[in-house]
Amino acid sequence: MTSMHSFPPSPGDGQHGEEFSLLRNLLSVGKHHLVTPGSTSGGLSNSTPNLSSERGCDSPMSDSFYRTPITGNTKVQLAKKNLFPVSARVSDWLVKIVQFAKSIPEFSTLSHNDKITLVLNSWSRLMLLYMAESNFQFAVTPIPTSHNSVSDSNPSQDEPTMKAVESLQTFIKKCQQMSVENKEYEFLRMLVLFNAGYAGLSSPKNIDQLNSVVQQLLQQHVRVSRPTDVMHYSRLLMCLPSLYGTNSKMFETLFCKHITKNTDMEVLLKELLQSIS
């Protein structure tokens, strides 16, 4: 277990130029928006414009604002004004998620079943970490409903709502307030990826051992890099419940439906795993 690759290299540009049957549109949307390996969490402003100067819904003057009471249960969708830039970043992150996993030597030694299981169960949480690292901002608008329809007071957890969006934005803001470093994000991604609690794993004990090693490496790193902040390691671990509480279907509906179209996310990720070296 001493061979744990503590800091997987950030995937470089140009590693996914080949055409994938299901991913041509995805990659063509994102190819001009790749974040360079040397970018930092503050690099978003240098690579892409700020997607929204304010969190939440568009202003009442926009064509997508609806004069209905907005509550936590209000169903929402991405605002039209940031649909393309959000889709471009999400496209890049989907590729980077697979590149990240495959850059870890311990991941490559796992069975094919466990590789797929880990990625399918962790992709939305890994993407949320990329969003937090980039201080990613986005705007949403209420989904229009007819005046005669009754607002759903208890929407499915799979549907994007204002409450769900606020939870995502709160997590991003919390990570910024904690000044999480790039290397700490790498460790958090490994902790999320190597989770023995995911159903369907054939070797959960091995995955749990990897998770324990990553926790130890993270603790050692924090002890050296922040010797006076004795609570920082604990605060990092306290971010994990929020990540695990992310509903992948809701996340997919909000951020990915415009790039995956009718393609199932499971099929898309499996093809990415096969196609990206």
TrEMBL record:
Residues 37-53 have a biased composition (Polar residues). GO terms for cellular component: cytoplasm; nucleus. It holds the Pfam family Hormone_recep. Residues 18-276 form the NR LBD domain. It is found in: Cytoplasm; Nucleus. GO terms for biological process: negative regulation of transcription by RNA polymerase II. GO terms for molecular function: transcription corepressor activity. It comes from the Eukaryota. Keywords: Cytoplasm, Receptor, Repressor, Transcription, Transcription regulation. The keyword Transcription applies. Residues 37-64 are annotated as: Disordered. Belongs to the nuclear hormone receptor family. NR0 subfamily. This is NR LBD domain-containing protein. It comes from Arion vulgaris.
